[in-house]
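User: Quick sanity check before I run a bigger batch. Here is a single chain. Can you write out its predicted 3D structure?
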Amino acid sequence: MAWGEVVVERRIVARVANPRDTEAALNWQLERVGSAAWQDWPLKFQRMAFGYAQDSGWHDASDAVRWLDHHALLQEGAAPRGALVWYQAADRIRVACSLGSDQVVGPLLSGPVEVATLADLSTDWVWSEPHFPFGQ
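Assistant: Done. Predicted structure follows.
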């Protein structure tokens, strides 16, 4: 994992289907491009995009990355379409959703929901499947 985390123990986590499938989640996000209503809520935005109305159970994206890493759910390299991309920007970890071809969508550091090239946002990222183990 990036960011120098030390992992002592990893646990296997059962996967479940999200309430909203990948393409529906991406469409939901793309319909909100330009909206500033999600500023500083990138984790909530992704959770809502995949159909979860209740809190994710994580305090913030850093908490989510620690949990995902502990459960061996983070990957390096090119993120496939629909994957959650966890990236370092402005001294904190943020999350967006991959559109494929190194493009992501979500509330970016500048505020509104946008589509951007991942390399323009950060040089340090990992990705995971859209997994919200505590979502409802």
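The longest strand covers residues 92-100.

User: Great, the batch can go ahead then.
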